[in-house]
Amino acid sequence: MILTRLKEQRRLKDMLGDATSVLVVACNACTAVHRTGGTKEAEALAESLTTDEDKLTIDVTAVPRQCDLALVGDRLEPGKHQLILSTACGAGLQALATAFPDHIVLPAADTMLIGYKGEEEDTVLEGCHACGDCFVDRTAGLCPLARCPKGLLNGPCGGQVDGMCEVDVQAIPCVWVLIWRRLSALGRAGQLLRVEPPRDWRSERHPRTGVEGI
Ligand code: SF4
Ligand code: SF4
Fold this sequence. Notes:
By secondary structure, this protein is α/β, with parallel strands linked by helices. 25% of the residues lie in helices and 19% in strands. One iron/sulfur cluster binds at residues 128-131, 134-136, 143, 145-146.
């Protein structure tokens, strides 16, 4: 799932400027699950952005999934609103901008990561950078591109402290220690002797990709 985080009020108010009519569009997929940009959060956001003194009117609407042109184009009518404020991820926002070329579409959120919910309550762990050439068959199913802050492909940097990453020894496990432990437990540590060649970063960009059946 994609994790987002709502922007600070100051930044949002700055974006809205002197607009008097705004439509906040929530996304009830990933952002609702993570409680960062679903209907409830969008309504709370609208309330927090309006004060008794100003002339700003904010309406709130929502779509089941903002990253789907078929779901936004037919369901929304931004009509009179000067601005659209999207609480979705960057992909959802761009679907809105494509569907409504005559409107200014603004991001209410920052897109943080593709991740999975951890065992601890309210924890999402980064899992994937969408590199387009998955090689975690060689790393025990753990991704060093996404989980090592340096993106190291051929083993640890040497900075780990008791299995934790030197970048944040309190919060980030060194993924290379995890990879080593898992491969050792599986009797496959020998595969780490293989040197991973430099990545072909062309695989990272897919501006237009055909997917059958969606
Ligand atoms: S190797 Fe690439 S596709 Fe696989 S998990 Fe890591 S970033 Fe994602
Ligand atoms: S300590 Fe481990 S996770 Fe942290 S930067 Fe070094 S190799 Fe990467």
